[in-house]
Q: What sequence folds into this?
């Protein structure tokens, strides 16, 4: 006997729930790619992506996922043999660095681990030691979706400037854009990238890159440029050049609708909603962890991010059995542990088009599973989440 019938809820950290309005906006005939509504649509989207990244720099929209946007950002500013510094705090900056390495870039990893944020002071010290300025770029993820950490990009930007270093600061905002503040220009970020299917509430398939003037100067001499990703080609006057071929029309109409939803709610409210639902989730986990079987992956409370929470399972407790129960019995699909946490953790996403019933439902289901599987846990985690929201969401 299961209680699964009804709408399934995907609580994985991407792809996330696509709003019905976005789905409807894509349900339309194809349009001309040389004239008509598509031209103004592109202009508006490029401008509004700048608004989301908070930059007066250039933005580019690729037909790609996040991995493609990684490649787009690297090929446009680096050359074979260049050296870069990757700031470890989970899996994703490491993965981005791995793509660079495979393109012939020398990669140094500033050692971190799965359980904490990047320490800006360590970044500053490493850059100060790079007397000859051999490091050309620094790669960091704002939120690492494997560990559930949030990195302080503003402080890292300050560390780069304090060291007086010229390296480009490149930020992966795939799991954070549209969910928490991102101030590209103010924080001194040179290249930022993201994708459509997480906080941006659109289907997978669009990669976003934003570039500062400094990055576009460096771009002129970059040796890894290829025709498809090349910024200069995409800055051409012809609409056709903006996508290096046929535009992803339907995804663009979907993205337009998703941006309209974000702006209608107000970005500050969107960020506040994420913070509230994330904190409610953390309240529940805090109570459950009293049973000593489950615990937060990120040790320092202030370093836990607002889009996904990674929950570790102690020895003898199987996260996959819990995920299985939530899916098969209740129709809630949770994320699995990745990297070092494979088979040792679950990830609860609270990212994108989510509201209180979705998150309280998810937390209720996780608590139900903890009980059904006899995994020791403090009782009343869901109640703690409810109380937190009652106190913080005023009538
Ligand atoms: C999901 C994710 C990616 C990869 O995006 P894909 O669309 O799966 O290629 C990169 N970085 C972060 C932080 C992510 O969360």
A:
């Amino acid at each position: 006997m299961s209680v699964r019938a009804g709408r399934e809820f995907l609580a994985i950290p991407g792809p996330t729930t696509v709003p019905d309005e976005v789905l409807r906006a894509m349900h339309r005939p194809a349009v001309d790619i040389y004239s008509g509504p598509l031209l103004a649509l592109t202009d508006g989207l490029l401008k509004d992506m700048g608004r989301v990244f908070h930059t007066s720099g250039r933005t580019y929209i690729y037909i790609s996922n996040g991995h493609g946007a990684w490649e787009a950002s690297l090929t446009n500013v680096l050359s074979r043999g260049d050296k870069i510094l990757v700031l470890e705090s989970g899996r994703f900056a490491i993965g981005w660095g791995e793509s660079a390495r495979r393109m012939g870039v020398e990669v140094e990893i500033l050692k971190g681990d799965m359980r904490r944020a990047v320490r800006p002071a360590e970044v500053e010290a490493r850059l100060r030691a790079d007397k000859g300025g051999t490091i050309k770029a620094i790669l960091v993820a704002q939120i690492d979706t494997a560990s559930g950490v949030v990195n302080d990009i503003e402080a890292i930007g300050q560390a780069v400037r304090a060291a007086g270093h010229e390296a480009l600061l490149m930020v992966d905002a795939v799991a954070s854009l549209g969910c928490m503040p991102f101030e590209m220009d103010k924080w001194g970020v040179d290249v930022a990238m993201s994708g459509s299917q997480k906080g941006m509430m659109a289907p997978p398939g669009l990669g976003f890159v934003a570039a500062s003037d400094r990055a576009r100067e460096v771009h002129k001499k970059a040796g890894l440029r290829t025709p498809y990703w090349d910024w200069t080609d995409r800055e051409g006057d012809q609409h056709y050049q903006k996508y290096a071929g046929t535009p992803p029309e339907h995804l663009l109409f979907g993205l337009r609708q998703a941006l309209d939803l974000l702006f209608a709610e107000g970005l500050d409210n969107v960020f506040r909603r994420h913070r509230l639902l994330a904190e409610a989730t953390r309240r529940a986990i805090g109570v459950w962890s009293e049973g000593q079987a489950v615990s937060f992956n990120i040790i320092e409370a202030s370093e836990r991010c607002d889009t996904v929470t990674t929950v570790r399972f102690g020895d003898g407790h199987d996260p996959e059995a819990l995920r299985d129960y939530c899916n098969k019995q209740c129709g809630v699909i949770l994320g699995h542990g990745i990297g070092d946490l494979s088979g040792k953790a679950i990830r609860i996403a609270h990212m994108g088009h989510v509201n209180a019933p979705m998150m309280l439902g998810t937390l209720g289901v996780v608590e139900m599973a903890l009980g059904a599987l006899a995994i020791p846990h403090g009782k009343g985690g869901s109640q703690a989440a409810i109380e937190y929201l009652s106190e913080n969401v005023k009538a």
